[in-house]
């Protein structure tokens, strides 16, 4: 015989427990169904001794159960006691098999549910929704009747799986229960979210266990992890407890080994065990069979919910991780709230209401928090698919703000990596820094600032409000999290950034409508270092735009690959075959790990044919490349040795990091007399601390690359600077400001050894003081005895990161080049130096 309840709660995690605790306090007849023999299975499966955080800190806890940051065991113990003390009706070993309404059929509610298996086969199920009460059938055959149902089941039971070759091998696992079980193993953690970081730290905590622990993150950002976890991870890395691999993905797995794709190519490492913590997806098939609709067909989409957590099935509610809110404090608040709503409390406001009210205080009056959230969701394209709950969490990390007509939102060359979304009004982009009247508009619903988000570079243009407007400034962390959790938002940001890059690159009066088909058919392709996007002699007419990274162009001459040119981000290749026909005339491959926009050749040919100015521009580009090819072919016999020499030099430079440089110091050994004027001039321009080491570095033939900053397109040193002290200046220089705390992270991240930590001397006396009174060292002669003569030798002196800043702000440019008496030292951008046409000036 079935039992009848006012509310049945499925899942005893933080959300479910809190809901059941509130139901018990309100004396509602309820039942809490848990499929295991213990409460809160997700946290129960946390590794032993794990510290559980209580974030966000500014959010108050609204629950009848207590929760504060602490050890896993203590938190579970408190909850066990309080659930029993509150009289919560828990039924253990109660797994729900099916839910169906027992009331009347809801008109027009027949759904076709598609379930796609891993082998690709699709089964379809027709579902007719019925009104409550609901019958819950358990796997043991028992049936429970409830007026309302609360889903609090989370997503951890449906983890994302490794898809690479070898991903199904037995030493790949998706859970870590007790880190102390593993001894003397090489363990790789895939995924650097909170779970991955905590697993890695747990395995590396006790050095006596002898584990070699590596955690792999596909980018330089930890988009989905809490800030405290990231800082703790990096502290462990700095202490030598574990290895952190950034910009790394898994290529393949085999017994005892793992192969990584890194920015520098493939790398193989010893590996006894892999723990994949790469997220999870909602158990969609089961939820949909209950008559609940999802917000989209995306695998990671969440159920459609009302502001009171009700789904499209009347009387069925969803809270917690399944609703898109994974944080414990959020989940517990939702558990409390949903029972209040079910009990008829229509006036209850969410716990984050005061925080959001404060955020919206400067906006025009007349809208409630819910109205503003819906206003932003409807108006901003990248937010369209967020649920009301996701919108609340998103806005906690973002800042809405009004702007008056003509007000500057940011200036060209301002630092900043946040993204802006236009909720109302429009903006004007000044495309010519010399003429502020030349502007293009960005309309309501779109975004701007995506260049800073993608590249981390300074703002590329001045943007002003074209009219009174409202924008949302989205922090880099919130933008990355949005892209990671909402595929539609990521696609929208990628589309907009692609469209703008193509318009900026090809110009010639093109509009968004002109390139709509090109953008629609394009795709973003990640390319490993050394991987070719075009092979000489192959067929194909696609065009490739370099979005991130750089490429090198090679041609086979006399059976050997000859380096033709270097292509930085913002370049494109492939137009020669599209315009002239025939086979590919050269090989184009990635100098470093790169990202390209692959443009369908047929779609782009239509744009060329319809725009004579663009066709003319493309033919000019093609002609210059044909000239290089013809030059090499014509000279290959008369001075093949020079061609070989140049090709060897170019490959040497690319192998030594010039492929990601924007400005590099080179020294011609044939001209250098070893006077060290370059180092002395550098020291004299920088408080007595030279930024370069002339003798250090590598040499090929007569060309020497000293130890000096390359000012990389995507600086490694910027990837983890706690005070955000590293910036890129208006001339492209990467510099470190006075907020440097001397942590040394940049030095560790730089692969070229061009950053050092040095004691900061007092301000150096001027030239006249040195000449007339002998105070301090002479030009280019730092004297540490003078610098610290009056200081206590037992006190550790403060240090800061020292690196080349291209003599930013110093008239005449880099001092090292100006001080060279023979012209041996030059500073160049790779694209200006690495071209075979330079051979024309060779004396052969």
TrEMBL record:
It comes from Parasphingorhabdus halotolerans. Residues 382-482, 506-625 form the Cyclic nucleotide-binding domain. This is Cyclic nucleotide-binding domain-containing protein. CDD domains: CAP_ED (cd00038), DMSOR_beta_like (cd16367). Keywords: 4Fe-4S, Electron transport, Iron, Iron-sulfur, Metal-binding, Transport. Residues 663-695, 732-760, 798-831 form the 4Fe-4S ferredoxin-type domain. GO terms for molecular function: 4 iron, 4 sulfur cluster binding; metal ion binding; oxidoreductase activity. SMART domains: cNMP. The keyword Mitochondrion does not apply. It comes from the Bacteria. InterPro entries: 4Fe4S_Fe-S-bd, 4Fe4S_Fe_S_CS, cNMP-bd_dom, cNMP-bd_dom_sf, FAD/NAD-bd_sf, FAD/NAD-binding_dom, RmlC-like_jellyroll, RnfB_subfamily.
